[in-house]
Amino acid sequence: MRRKIFRGIVVLAVLGLAFVAWAVWMSGILHHGVPEQPATAGVAAPAAAVSAPGAWQEPQFASVIQRGKYLARAGDCVACHTARGGQPYAGGLATPTPFGTLYSPNITPDKQDGIGSWTEADFWRAMHDGIAPGNRLLYPVFPFTHFTRITRPDVDAIFAYLRSLPPVAKPDIHNQMPFPFNQRSTLVFWRALFFRPGEYKPDPKHSAEWNRGAYLVDGLGHCGMCHSAFNVLGATDQNAKLAGGLIPVQNWYAPALNSGSELGLGSWSTGELVQYLKTGVSLRGAAYGPMSDVVFHSLQHLSDGDLGAIATYLRSQSEKTSPSDRQRVEVSPELAAELVDQGRQIYVNHCAACHQLDGRGSGLQYPPLAGNPSIAMQPGTNAIRIVLLGGFQPGTKGNPRPYSMPPFAQLLNDHDVAAVVSYIRQAWGNKAPAVSPAVVGRFRQVPVD
Amino acid sequence: MRGIPFFALLALLGSGGALAQSGTPAAAAPLAFGRAGPAKVSTGLRQRIDGCIACHGPHGQGGGSGGYAPRIGGKPAGYLYHQLQNFRDGRRAYPLMTWMVQYLPGAYMKEIAAYFASQSPPPPQPQVPMVTQATLDLGRRLVSMGDPARGVPACMACHGANLMGVEPDVPGLVGLTNDYISAQLGAFKQEIRRTKAPNCMHEVTSRLDGSEIGAVAAWLSSQPVPPGAKPAAAGSVKFPLRCGSIDGDG
Questions:
Q1: Residue A409: how many CB atoms within 10 A of its CB?
Q2: pLDDT tens per residue across span A260-289
Q3: A407 Cβ partners below 8 Å, 6+ apart?
Q4: How many domains does chain B have?
Q5: Chain A within 8 Å of B98 (Cβ-Cβ)?
Q6: Cis peptide before A407 (omega within 30 of 0)
Q7: Quick check: B179 and B186 in contact, CB under 8 A?
């Protein structure tokens, strides 16, 4: 008996060690300094295949720094690496996650506080492998799982741009994470399970434009960081890529980008989608919440060619469903009927002047609510927030004087907000369940950092 | 607020068909935003800033947001522009304002600021807070004379003899509520409300205690807005302190 127990312990220990060894091996931290492929001819082919055709020939991209600036914008680096009111790229923005609060680091070329002492190879390893100098494993809130697809020339250009910024002496803020998440070594397991480094490999079955779009969406643009569901370990579910997801802690719902479901991008024209990405407004709807941030800091600066490539790629996505697609029923049928009935009157009083009685909205100023996926998507919290908080469309070069919606938080109680949101979720052919007044109460806080 | 029932009525008229099937017109509609009937969308600014007007009113008279939203109509444009920047950049902490302005281009902020600066909202009824005469006297003294022994300048020294502010960057102080003024002075003292350096209002308020701040707010909020009064002309006031909000672009 005792021998059996002993044997069992030995077997478990061996298995455990084997697992740790496997995890360490798979995590890639041992591959230090060994380039995946020669950094010369080998990368030139994919790099050429995914660079915007002809774009780099334009005079504004004469220098590698200018190319890097454009690419850094396509990656929206500034959004996370800048605190509110702070120096661009000097870090300090808090990102709350279920595993603790992380603060973005200073990536200006300050020798002490930034990345001023990094080499090009160091930067490549951080972007491509998620490992900073000193073998420091980076938390996947930094989207190296996407950035690993970026080509070496593009990563080098981004580094050249960051090196050209004025150095800012601003020390990083320590992450606030409880044990065991504060132990970076635990990331070896996460990496073994969820991370495979590798540059984007163009798919010869598709056009150059499609491949460029895939490179931007799944690589630099890291769209899936929000638009895919996370599993309990904070990793993107690869089976539900771009199938929509709730942004943890912030509780904004990023809708599915695969055609057919939610946004139904397949039914948008490429032109509509490009207009939305470039200006923040379209006849289908306007950007709001975190997407306003993306349009404002990143997408409005991209070339029409790249936006067209993104649209082409997104519109070609085959529909996949994520678990969150199923509409949850929050209220009883009786309460739902009552809410919808009361909501109609509230709509007439407060909403119809702009969004029209038929819910079709008006031009680019007042988005349609009929057939607008933001209204009918699961969950109803985005619509609830917009009613409570209102807000401006993002101000962009293409829409420099944006329209706005009044906040209704002070005017409508939780029941009234639930009523009007329930009404618009079921009017004019929209088919989504009523929302609960209790849910409204949880979203009254203004989501700004 | 007189215009609001009018807008509500228009909205109701414009939507008569729906009302017929949905019962009594909600006489309770306290505010209706926007225009009636088929949307006539103007490219003018007024239609674009419903989000501002909801709380601050079409003429910037204030009073929304539970009465807290300040009167901004007729305040100097530079001051208003700086506040939009300050909300965007976190130097002022009112999350709904940050939410509203965080993705607005600077040129548009200037346009919105100029719009409200050009308004002349009707003078509000001054409210006399429930404080003692001694408190009001203390407030009046601090506002008009300051306390030179402690290096506290008079409010009037910077905000103009009629307290309507000074073009282009110094705000007026009358026409605001007791709650709003005391919250702002307290926020300056605690450095929750900041300006670009140097933050002269922090210097001043850090020399005042809570009861003095209360007295200043009480007296200011009890003062009427003189009809037709405007901010003092640019350059007409020699400021006793250096302020980032005046010559520091924010």
A1: 22
A2: 666 678 788 999 999 999 999 999 999 999
A3: A388, A389, A390, A391, B51, B54, B55, B96, B100
A4: 2
A5: yes
A6: no
A7: no
Q: Is B130 on the interface with A (CB under 8 A)?
A: no
**DSSP class of A91:** B
Distance CA A388, CA A365 (A): 19
B208 and B115 assigned to the same domain: no
pLDDT tens-digit map of B86-142 = 999 999 999 999 999 999 999 999 999 999 999 999 988 888 899 999 999 999 999
Task: Find out whether the peptide bond into B168 is cis, omega within 30 degrees of 0.
Answer: yes
List pLDDT tens digits, range B10-51: 333 333 333 333 333 333 333 334 443 444 445 699 999 999
Compute the Cα dihedral for A159, A165, A166, A170 and give only its sign: negative
Could you write out the DSSP letters of every residue in B89-152? Answer: TTSS--HHHHHHHTT--HHHHHHHHHHHHT--PPPPPP---S--HHHHHHHHHHHHH-BGGGTB
Among candidate residues B68, B96, B121, the one where a domain is terminated: B121
Residue A353 with chain B: CB contacts under 8 Å: 11, 14, 32-36, 39
Q: Which of B136, B116, B138, B134 is nearest to B178 (CA)?
A: B136
Q: How many CB pairs under 8 A join A and B?
A: 137
Q: For A391, list phi and psi in degrees, rounded to 5.
A: 135, 165
| Contacts of B192 by beta carbon, 8 Å cutoff, 6+ apart | B93, B186
> Which domain range does residue B93 map to?
60-121
